[in-house]
Amino acid sequence: MFSAGSASSAVCSLVAIAQEFSPRYERHRDDLVSIDVSGLTRLLGPARSIGEELRREAAARGVRAHVAVAGTRMAAVLIALASPGLTVIANGEEASALAPLPLALLEKYEVRSTKYESRSDREESAAAARTSDFVLRTSKKWGLRTLGDLASLPTADLVARLGHPAREWQAIARGEDIRPLVPLLEEERFEASLDLEWPIADLEPMSFVLTRLLEPLSTRLERRDRGAAVLHILLRLVTRETTARRLELPSPMRDVRALRTLALLDLEAHPAEAAIDRVTIVIDPTPGRVVQHTLYTRAQPTPEQLSTLLARLGALMGTDRFGAPASVDTDRPGAFAMTPFATEHEGKSRDARAERGEHVGQSPVPSPQSLLSALRRCRQPVPARVAIVDGRPVRVTTDRRGFPGGAVTHCAGPWKTSGEWWVEKSEVRSTKYEGGGSGGSGDSGDGGDRTALSRTSDFVLRTSTPSTPSTRSSPWDRDEWDVSLSDGAVYRVFRDRHADCWFIDAIVD
Amino acid sequence: MALARADLESLLRVRQLDRTLTTALPQVDPGDERALAPSGISALDARMGGGFPRGQLSELVGLRSSGRTSVLLQTMAAATARGELVALVDALDMLDVGSAAAAGVDLDRLLWIRGHIVTNQGLCRELNQRAIEQAIRAFTLVLQAGNFGLVVFDVAEAPADTVRRLPFTTWLRLQRMVEGSQTACILVGGEPMARSSAGLTLRLTAAADTPSAHGRAGHKFGAKLFDGLEVQARIVRARAREQEEAGVALSTSA
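YS: structure for the whole thing
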């Protein structure tokens, strides 16, 4: 079917017309569509009736269409390009019907040779265009004027002179199909809905509903070799409002249990405001992961297992209380950042071991006996009272249970450290001691603003969670000491030079 | 390279192809290097028979400044260097990221779970008890997910009475969860909490015969600097009902 008009709306109309008649149709160009009408004879009658029906439908949609019905798709396409109105070619007469048509007709048709299927679309089009141009120019030089002239040439001699693409052009000139019809597939929508007889407000019955909706979706995803990238949950409430939840999955997955668990955890964290009477699930698909299993490396948690674990930890601890730590580029003592824990580590493991020159399964060489002393950081520095003699601490005591303190048996220091002095005091937020998390970054800081520090008892009572003193940069200026106390422990203590207060910052362990 | 039977069965369980396996748990061959998680400290690994046993609860105990964290971070670094994922349930949120990075821990492979602990107990004693229980639940979730190479439960600075108030069945349940898996579990505390019969306890103490003239025994102070700790590590195995008379001497450097 060929649209004689040039309106862009004809594109959609041709496709819409094709959809009305058959699910097997191919769009060659914006104005050219071929439809497999085999099987419609029982419904619409002979080929001419089918053609007339197509024209009527096109006219009803305001499209001037040239329709050709033939035994082969290629013959029908060429006839539709050449002849206006309706043309019906009997089976077996395609070559004779095409013979008188001008050779220039082939220039109107873009040939996608099966030979170039492995190349990219752009390369394929360019290669096909060069080939067709060469063949057609050469044919014209030889004095060929019609498709019949080209079709009547001996094939072997033609290929010997113009190459293998000439064989395909000759087949087209004879009205032979050089490749099968490639139907245009509609984008499949992975969606399922369920209207509930009785509204539900709890999560337990929701688990059964989600399972019922997810199982057929999972089957369809598996058939299409797709995984779910985003899960949309639409809940219609009894109040006629619709609540939508969107879950971005860390990796493509289609396991029903994993999807259901993640959905339930999300709904548990964000409960609906009213009872639910309709549940709709929409999945945004993505190509599935290609995983090559191997028995020679240690098993690791799958992305689905890690996703479920992280969701459960988020529900239990809060989303800001777990992750992968990261160092930050600062001299601030104890500074760190929290990053999301990745769910894919397989490829990174292989790459890392390859960089070290290790073979799969080879264990790395253990490190020498000497260890580095590690610190245990007090996320909220412990206020301390330090007695100083001759500029050196001689006794450290605190009111904190678990930090009895004692006499200083030996000490090393001081080391003066300071930084971010360029941050204006007015830019520093007040110390947050209640609620909140560390967000995306955290640092131990040096104890917060002076007002709270001067009232030690108030500082202690107001502290409710070990949250970071400040979520923004703040200057620090301190003298640090390593002290060994009579209680048998070694501490890192510091004196805040601005507040002139002492704190226990870390334990050397 | 020979595949350990336990490793193969674990892989089959992951792929849900274990229907033909017997329900009896595999006996771990102590000589099988894949049944152990080396700590990365050669002298210590030699005394432990290769490392911490997988599929068992082991302990790393000692007083403050006895080198627990140093040994722990080295063990975590060795695990991440092997390509394993490590989970740290830090009940009191005391991990120093700088120390971990300096020890060689691959931070991208470390899942750090930070507990909520109230720094001043006082009226908040119950809050800390609930925080420890929450940490136990997080620990349970990690073990249920499975296939972590090393899972650490760190309550080293928690008050002893808080940990003792946990039901004894807690550790039995956790042992059942980790049994037969390729996960090495280490409980870090001030005193022994619970350990499986096949696990081991690594008890760290400050070395009493530190030659340094400065500082308390076990603490090395130079003329102006703190130089590190001298640690004595003793290995206790429940099955053999023996405790090594002479432990392993370790030294940390600042």
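YS: worth flagging: Residues 375-508 of chain A form one domain.
IM: good catch. Also Chain A has 15 helices and 19 strands.
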